[in-house]
Each structure stands twice: as structure tokens, then as C-alpha cells.
Design a protein that fits this description.
heterodimer; A: mainly alpha; Arc Repressor Mutant, subunit A; 53% helix; B: alpha+beta; three-stranded antiparallel beta sheet; 9 helices
Chain lengths: 121, 468
Amino acid sequence: MIIRIDELSDVPIYQQIRNQIVMGISDGSLTGGEQLPTVRSLAVEIGINTMTVSKAYQLLKTEGYIMTDRKNGARVRSRIEQQGSISEMNKTELKRIVSEARISGVPRKELLDLVKEFYGE
Amino acid sequence: MSNLYFGITMFVCLVPTIWIMFFYLYPKKWSERKQVFGLTNRKEFLQNSIKEEVEAITQKGRKRALLISLAITLIAVMLMLLHGMFLQTFIWTSFIFIAIFIIIVPFLLGHKEMMTVKKSLGLTREKGISYVDLKTAGNVHALKAAPVIFPNLAGLLIMGLLFLTDLGVIRFKAYAPGSFFGTVLAATMFLVGLLITLCGFLMDRMKNDVISTDSDINANYNRAKKKNWADIFIAFLWLNDAYMLACAITLLLSYSNLLATIFLILYLILMVAGMAVFVRRGRKIEARYQKETTVITDDDECWLGGMIYCNPNDHRVLVEKRAGIGSTINIGHPVGKAIGIVTLLLLMNVFVSLIYVGLVEATPISLRSENEALICHQLKDEYVITADMIDQIELRDDIYEHTLLRKKGVGMDNLLKGDFIVDGQNGCKVFLAPQENLYIHIVTKDGTNYYVSGATAEETQAAYECMK
């Protein structure tokens, strides 16, 4: 799975790493039990501080997407807890995206088609 | 004769390096390379009219570089005929710096022209964008521990053999124990081996390139590249051992300048041949994977002249070179800046040292007798041998029949000065103008052997008459 990092983006780098790993798990690029690179090697590859990668992994661990232990490093969880609901933060984000699309004149169907595509239908 | 040895050694160092640089920096088939004159090779360059333009730029650069390489080779042949230690060292050192700079001039010009082409196509860098493959990050390595440990152990064994010889535990007819000349030489070579090992592991842990959205292609590409690196480092480690062994054999069995020079030249030739094979394999890997490249990471703006990496946002100090072999420093990083400054100072120091060599060579030695003491003087060095120290003294004219091996001091055609091993005897003090042949051999009461002479035979004769 390829991660794309934009150093000049408003989104912090740790958040970019976290978001793309979540997207990778969602679209199947990363499967359950799959090994993730160590904090150090990922930091070296991107050319960033190890603390940034550590923060991303910590966030993913707290959210239940990955598990970490000293022996095996970081792995994608085989069973990710399904809450069946969208978090308040994501609802706000979705509302922003839909609003922007409506202002830009994106037809409702096109937007729904995109959601279906991303959802994998 | 040593002038010729020096000339041949310098020739073997410089000329093949220039030709390797020529073939590496100025490829015939630019479309198979990852970069063209230090600029990311983009698919847009292959469009019909643009392709012709890029072809013309690369061919022009190649033609210029070919002429420069031929001129350097010719000049290097002529420089082998130079005489005089200072003149040789100064001209060769300056020429090496100039030659390496001149051979990259067509590259820099080509880089400038390619920048114009890129600009005209409206190709801009996606600023601050980098890609990482999660499957290859930190996982692709080719250098294993065992193939590195064995040659280092072999080096340690050779060093041990020389150390035991120096301690007198093992004895060889031609070698004087206690001088530690062999041990120091072997230790230096062993350290070179350790340095090669360190460089090997650093290159093996370099960032993996992302060239495709397919992780397998990325993994195979990076593995192939790192395998090429691992092979060359292991080959260099064994070569270093072979040279160490050759030096040990020469020292322990029968020292000869000619043999030592032949081994050195062979070592350099094999090293350059290894580099040539490495470059050839590297080019094949690039050509093979260029067809499968789908992800372009364009950080051209961080590469000054396509050669010097400067990216303050990159936390890495060492990055893989774009033009050339190995890694280079990121001068945008504080540590990179410090390394760059130290390297510049060291290069400047080379020329300061050369001025000192010139002074040593140009200052004649003097030998005089004063207050019943023999005084040998040159620059800041002085030997004073008083009459009551002397046990035996004789005037001789057979200096060329002796084997003199320098431990510490100066060894020039017109001056031998310092601590030497003479005919296998350790701890000899030498202060000679060897071209005069006439010299005084003194054995002091404490058993030290002095081989001294003045700048002229008359000066030596006069000093001998006074001391006799």
C-alpha cells in the first residue's frame, strides 16, 4: 500500500498517515494481521521525526485499528470493532463536504454515486 | 623509479574513475535512465518533438564529456613523466581536482538546458509530496551479517599474525620484530574494512524508492538495487583482505618497493574493475524497471545542479546520490552542513600539506661538526650526535645496496629523513640525501644506527673528517 505525504498540507502529517492507513484497511489494501513498518523505519522512509509516526500509530491504536506489542511491532487488527454509527466529528466533516458539493452545483446523484463507490457497492 | 611508481598509481586512480564517470553521467540511451542530467526522467520527455530536443541535449553533453575524458587521459599519460616529489604531488593533486570538476561541467550545462525544457512543458514539482510503500518500508535488505563478518574476521587474523610477529612470538627472517610497522599497516587496512562494512550497512538501510503502485515491483526494484550494493561491498571487503595479505607477505618474506607498488596497482585496478561491474549492473536494473515506473516522485528542486541535495524539510542526513555512486549529504540539514564544512576544510588542508611537502623538498639538509658533535639539520628537525655517544663511525658509499623501509618521517627521491627499518633492522635514524650515495654510518653506544649525509659529498666528507 502506498502512502502519499503532503508536507505543505494543512492536515498534520500524523493525521495524513492515520487517514491513509484507515482508508487502506477500508479498501482492503491492508488486511487483518498485516505487519506495519516500525516507527523508526517509516520515519526514515518519509524523512520525518519518529515522534510524528509514533503519534499516528498511537492514534490508530486508540481508535482500535491496529495493535502494537514489543515483539511483533504494529499490526492491523484482525477484528475491528464495528460500532455501526458515524462519529460526531465525521458527521460534521461529511456535512461540510456535502455543503461544499451543493454550493459547487454537484448533482445529488453524483455525490451519492461517489459515496457508493467509496463504500464499495 | 619511485617517480614512475607514483605516476602509475595516480594514473590508475584517476583515468578509470573519469571513464566510469563518463559512462555513468552521460548515457547513450537516456530514455532508460531514471534521471536525465539530474532531472527526473518524465514520460513527457518522450513526446516526439521533445524527444528530439532531449536527444540533442544529451548527445551534445556526451560529446563534450567524451572530448574532456580523452584530454584528461592524454594529460594523465604525460604527467606520468614528471619528476620531483613536490612537483608531482602538487600537479597530480591539482589535476585530480580539476579533472573531476571539468568532467561534470557538461552535466551542469545539460542540467540547465533540461530545466528550460521542463519549464517550457509546464512541468512543475508537486511541492512537499513524497510516497512511501508500507510493505517495503524498512523491510527490503540485501546485506546479511555472515558475508560481512567472514572477511572482517580474515582481516583480523592477518592483523593478528603481524602483531604476533611484532611481539616476536612468530619469527620471519626479513622482518624486524618490535617495529610495529606491519601491525600499524594491517590495523589501517582492517579499519578500512570496517569503514566499508559501515558504508555497506548505511547503503542497505537507505530509503526505498517508490516507483509503482504495485508493492511487489517496489520491493523487487529496491532489492535488486541493494543486492548490487551488497555485492560490491562484500567484493571490496575481500579485496581489502587480499591486499592486506599481499602486504603482509611482502613485509614478512622479502620487502621490495617494486612488489609493493605492483600489489597497490593491482588492488586499485581490481577496485576500479569492481566499480565498473557495479555501474553496469546498476544501469541494467534502472533500464529494466524504468518501463514499470508509474509513480514519479519529482524532487528536482531540492537537487542543486542535479548533484547537491538541499532539503531542510527532510530529516535524513544521507540520501542516495542522483548523479554518481553512493550517498550524499543533505546540506539542508544542520548535520549535513557541518559535514560539508569539515569536508571543505579537509580538502583545503590537502593543499596546505602540499605546500609543506614543497618546503621539505626545496630545503637542503645540512651536516656539520660543532663542539665535538655531529649536527644534522633541516627545517625544524635536528639530530645531534656527540662524540662521547659514538661507538663506531665509518664513511660508506653503498646506500643503494640497503633496503630502507620508512616507519616515520620523509621518503623522497632527494631526501630520506626519520625513523627507518634498514635491512630488517628496526630503530634506525636516517638523515640522507640519497642521490649523493656517500654517507656516514654511526653506531652509538646505546645501539642506535644512524645513516647521515650532507647535501653534497664534500659536506659529508668534511663532517666525517672532523668526527673521526
